[in-house]
Design a protein that fits this description.
- By secondary structure, the chain is mainly α.
- It has one domain: Helix Hairpins (Orthogonal Bundle), CATH 1.10.287.
- 79% of the residues lie in helices and 0% in strands.
- The chain contains three helices and no strands.
- Helix 2 runs antiparallel to helix 3.
Amino acid sequence: MKAQELRKMSVEELKKKADELKQELLKLRFQAKLQGLDNPMAIRNTKRDVARVLTVIREKELKGEV
């Protein structure tokens, strides 16, 4: 997921996307503890995506686009 794609979305859409990513991260963590992951980098990539979305939300807040 690219930051440019995220900047085109509204704040409401970004918040929804952040919630979805957090849920996915939770599922990945459970799966990693219970049975292991096929792709161990999935947790790291999802965490980065969450951070990227939250950063774009903050940028929009500072610009006054909320």
